[in-house]
């Protein structure tokens, strides 16, 4: 028979005490409203920021596409 040894934990992972403390003190994760914030103002600001980031990404893709096309036509 082989003796199964417990797998060593990574440093900082903690043991039974840390697992118990995390479960009791931190509790289950709550994601309700975590991204947008709690207020309507925070939600709207988040949405506007997201839209600005998407617009910037679209502009960058279009700029790169235009550069590729210009190189192809310049051959």
Helix content: 55-70%
Give the overall silhouette: elongated
Major sheet attributes: none
Radius of gyration: 25 Å
| Helix/sheet category | mainly alpha
| Count of DSSP strands | 0
Low-confidence stretches: none
Oligomer: single chain
Helix and strand pattern: HH
Number of helices: 2
How much is the average pLDDT? 78
Strand residue percentage: under 5%
Distance between the termini: 73 Å
Structure description:
The mean pLDDT is 78. Helix content is 60%, strand content 0%. The chain has a domain of 36 residues. The radius of gyration is 25 Å and the shape is elongated. The protein is an all-alpha fold.
SSE map:
Elements: H1 16-26, H2 40-73
Biased composition (Basic and acidic residues): 41-75
Region (Disordered): 29-75
How would you concisely characterize the structure shown here?
The protein is mostly helical.
What distinguishing features does this structure have?
60% helix; 75 residues; 0% strand; elongated; mainly alpha; single chain
């Amino acid at each position: 028979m082989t003796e199964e040894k417990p797998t060593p934990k990574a440093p900082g992972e903690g043991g039974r005490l840390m697992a118990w403390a995390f479960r009791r003190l931190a509790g289950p994760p709550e994601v309700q409203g975590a991204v947008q914030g709690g207020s309507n103002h925070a939600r709207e600001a988040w949405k506007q920021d997201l839209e600005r980031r998407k617009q910037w990404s679209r502009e960058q893709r279009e700029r790169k596409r235009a550069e590729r096309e210009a190189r192809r036509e310049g051959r």
